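Meet the record:
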Amino acid sequence: MTKETEVKKSKRIINTILIIIGSISLGIGAIGIVLPILPTTPFFLLTLACYTKGSIRFERWFKSTKMYVKYLEPFVKTKAMTNASKVKVLILITGLISIPIIMVDALPMRIVLAAIIFLHYYIFIFRIKSVTKAQLNKMQEEAGTEAAARFTAQSEGDSQLSNEERIGAAASKSPFDETTGKRGNENLSGAVSKSSTPDNTEGNGR
């Protein structure tokens, strides 16, 4: 096995581990929506971090969900957290990523996973603002209102597009009558309108 092949294999394994960790965190965060005792945003934040590094396809899918728009997009826009939330997230990330570091017997993979942990510490300490709970609530409320409006507009646009697609599909399935130059649904509507019009021929004959 060449060195390049070994590196690719290690990268695939690391990506798989990140996707698994992200999916577990997503499940726990979804449970936190129903059970208030579990924090939702930290788990979804871990999901986003793992999917971003593990799979572009999973990252795009997660960003298109209602859970991301409602619970995580306000944080992504504000880039602010309370110190307590930072500590919870960092403990969670350290614990989950430490498990494969202990279990995997490959030094390069351990180094990469350890680097991911340290990268999260750098981001949370130096790149994410520390604010009070009141400040965070105000910032997230403003960002959440904007995100909700965007999601509603997107949903309405998708619904309108779906209606137009259904109409187009129905028209394309209608048989085409070469003698009249119209499709079957147009002929049918014409026949219905003619049948509904009173026949005055007989009355004029009288």
Remarks:
- The radius of gyration is 29 Å.
- The CA atoms of residues 33 and 40 lie 6 Å apart.
